[in-house]
Amino acid sequence: MISVEEASRLVRATARPLPSETIALTAATGRVLQQPLYADRDFPPFNRVAMDGIALSFAAIAAGQTDFPIEATQLAGTAPQPLRNALAAIEIMTGAMLPPGTDVVVRYEDLEFHEANGQRIARVQVPPPAAGHNIHHQAADRQQGDLLLPAGTRLGPAEIAVAATVGAAVVPVARPLRVAVVSTGDELVELTQTPLPHQIRRSNAYMLRAALLEAGAEGEIFHFNDDQQTLRQGLPPLLAGFDALVLSGGVSKGQADFLPEILREVGVTQIFHEVQQRPGKPFWFGQQAGGAVVFALPGNPVSTFVNFYQYVRPWLRQCQQPQAVLPQLMAVLAASFAFKPPMTHFLPVRLEASPHGHLLAHPQPAGGSGDLASLLQCDGFLRLPPEQELFKAGDAFPLIRFREW
Amino acid sequence: MISVEEASRLVRATARPLPSETIALTAATGRVLQQPLYADRDFPPFNRVAMDGIALSFAAIAAGQTDFPIEATQLAGTAPQPLRNALAAIEIMTGAMLPPGTDVVVRYEDLEFHEANGQRIARVQVPPPAAGHNIHHQAADRQQGDLLLPAGTRLGPAEIAVAATVGAAVVPVARPLRVAVVSTGDELVELTQTPLPHQIRRSNAYMLRAALLEAGAEGEIFHFNDDQQTLRQGLPPLLAGFDALVLSGGVSKGQADFLPEILREVGVTQIFHEVQQRPGKPFWFGQQAGGAVVFALPGNPVSTFVNFYQYVRPWLRQCQQPQAVLPQLMAVLAASFAFKPPMTHFLPVRLEASPHGHLLAHPQPAGGSGDLASLLQCDGFLRLPPEQELFKAGDAFPLIRFREW
What we know:
Two copies of one chain form a homodimer.
Chain A: H1 4-12, E1 20-24, E2 37-38, E3 48-49, E4 53-56, H2 58-62, E5 67-74, E6 89-92, E7 104-107, E8 111-116, E9 119-124, E10 135-136, E11 147-149, H3 157-165, E12 170-174, E13 178-184, E14 188-189, E15 200-201, H4 204-214, E16 218-224, H5 228-241, E17 244-248, H6 259-265, E18 268-273, E19 277-278, E20 284-288, E21 293-297, H7 301-320, E22 330-333, E23 337-338, E24 344-353, E25 359-363, E26 380-384, E27 390-391, E28 396-401
Parallel strand pairs in A: 5-6, 13-16, 13-17, 14-15, 17-21, 19-24, 22-25
Antiparallel strand pairs in A: 1-12, 2-11, 3-10, 4-6, 4-7, 5-9, 8-9, 18-20, 20-21, 22-28, 23-27, 24-25, 24-26, 26-28
Helix pairs in contact in A: 1-7, 4-7, 5-6
Pathway (chains A, B): Cofactor biosynthesis; molybdopterin biosynthesis
Pfam families (chains A, B): MoCF_biosynth (PF00994), MoeA_C (PF03454), MoeA_N (PF03453)
EC number (chains A, B): 2.10.1.1
């Protein structure tokens, strides 16, 4: 039986970059850029006035002048008019281009205005310390041609704004991953059906589809009964049409658990079966030569859940952003906890933000891997290593978070 | 000028709960439930077999019996058949209903099988410690009628699974917030246009729309030039048609910044103008009597960004989940930092996950509130309080995070 680390490595090794599609920037939030984006102009593209006030020549200030007649007014978005009289000033607004002949801006807060002979005059109360004050200089942040967003960048609000600035009305992004979610199990009935006493409604498939959506992938739900012929016929079209299959149920030791055998028959090569972990040990993983990968997860809901977040989600991210190195969040155990079997234990925890900047992880009581409802009180799992038996309060362990605040 | 705390309180006080709409569970990921969901059956609904193996009577084990003839096989999803002979066993699969007459399950791993006179016999190698072993008992997790999901719950993957289990094929959820994003400023041209030397493309509106989407709201973009008549006519239909308006630009001291005046004219009452913070001081906030709220944010991109995450996003969440108390994440300053003005400072930071369970916040150099590109290197802002001037490495401060990993 292999370790969690080895299983994770083998899963990640099957990730492949996704093909591109070009979409409108307004549809691209959360998507991953496929080509680098460069600055088409300097950032800022001109000496940009950073405060409302007056623009003038610092030489006049340095010479002790305090009163400046207003020669003109210049709003943002208008072509700049040069200062004609070096001892005068132009009233100017944030976002405007600095007028030729000026090199400093004094903000309204540091000015007083009066009129003399019908001429509006600004008196400088607090002189600026140097030329360039209150000016956001051309190319101060980025130069034309600079790389702004490398390929592989996830487009959040800041990246969308930068793309808008350079006029990227459409962007090449990775197409969404397409995942078939397959539930198996004769005890499972549809959501809309009333189950017989020995039946339950399927829930894992809906959980997996929701988790895929949150991870930026598309999930489509299929159901097969525990019947070899049905699976033998049903799986090949899914292998051909999807990037990955995520199955739940059918991989433990039971008589109806012939899924690994059928998967081999339809051309999926086993990469591993069973991982040294609890819950979720019977996890089976394989890949069709050069094609879809298959995550066959055990059907107990907590096992399905843990395996999704430990293996499937990192695989999705690796496909979406092959270059990204995602940081491993750690959390501090809030109460000591013992787990003796020599396997990695995924401990359900509720998180608390400590005033000292820690994430505190409170172990949550759970009724075993069948206790779906226990997940409602949890924010994630701590991944407790197999070589330890006692996990002490105050120690930090890797956190798998499935709920953000 | 009011403090950040007071401004935040005044903003949150205007939040109103959203009307309901009923949608398919498959469309409800990330939405907020509007009515409580109860258990329609016990969880589990029957004594559920938790391991593949055999079901038998513990009395026989206690009496020292080790060999059990297999009377029948029962898969998950079939009606249970009672054990006829109390000294025999039923071969049974995970997920099946425990057969009447049995009270314990021995898993395959603890059994060996052989045949005698054509009869399949299971030999118990590791006897179970007590009756009830490997059985997930009816109602162990939840009882019929128990509250599973209170109104106001955000529907993540675990909640979607629980809703599926109780047959909630459609669910009442809060309708999405509708927000009009309004950019102003004559210097701004459309994404698809080539700007003149003194113009720039609009980016704040796209940033705000993306940030709204990430927060689960709908954003629609409008643009008005800095012209009083245009604004006077353009704003009332937006106030009538949206829950909130988020404007950027037009609220500082400049001659073209008549937005507060126009807003008053069209019936929006000012709640505050200017907050003791940097960046983002000129923030104006108001509300139409019983109607839309108006966030008029300063137009410098970093100011817009900070104000969105400090004020707009919490307001959205308060409308979506009025009962939720969201924890305040804290992060540890990785390098000392000085900021003297007596105002709250939003310090751009890059986050690092420490091996000890801290979030470390590295201050990022930025070219001021106009430096949009500096946000690309940041994950959030630390909110540094006004009464301090020196912020020491190792101290923890409230974190506003705008990028998840």
